[in-house]
Amino acid sequence: MKALLVIDVQNGIVNYGDFTEELAFIQKTILEFKTKDLPIFFMKHLDNEEGSSLLEGSEGTELHDAVKEFADIVIEKRTPSSFYKTNLAERLKEADVDHLIITGFNTEYCCMFTSIAAFDRGYKVTYIENATGTMNTGETYGMKGFDIKDFVETVLHWSDAIEVITYDEYVEKYVGGSK
Questions:
Q1: pLDDT more than 90, % of the chain
Q2: pTM (2 d.p.)
Q3: Which of 18, 23, 86, 140 would be 136's cystine partner, CB 3.0–4.6 Å?
Q4: Which residue segment(s) compose the domain that 127 sits in?
Q5: Angstrom distance (rounded) from CA 73 to CA 98
């Protein structure tokens, strides 16, 4: 069975940029899962570091308005991996999940780490590239002009371990098809 992971769609990230397109694709994916009564797990990142936009207890940790009304299952985490020291693996096992669809934020941390961790645990992983985003830029890492999303998506795709597709490709393959 498929499950959707909606990773860190929180005010402390989303409010840092224009993520209109990413949020629209995340919402469409959520609605598709809701319609089919498939499991959706919302991950929520919490930091203890003063000055973090995701400081525990702050408005930044709250799920963004674009998704919070859909969040029936919310799992808190403190590292980039949605699996590390959380009950996500147990929840997925209870739901008989073998295929994870990845959406959310931040591309180069939580989405990438979770995708790799899921693959390492034996899940089929589909990463919807235009339903992920990052508040960081190449300048964040001292690499002016560097496209973080493109780099991460290329690495994951070339791994031949993680399926990296656009939302339209996802719909064609999994929603309109027989899977």
A1: 73
A2: 0.91
A3: 140
A4: 2-175
A5: 18
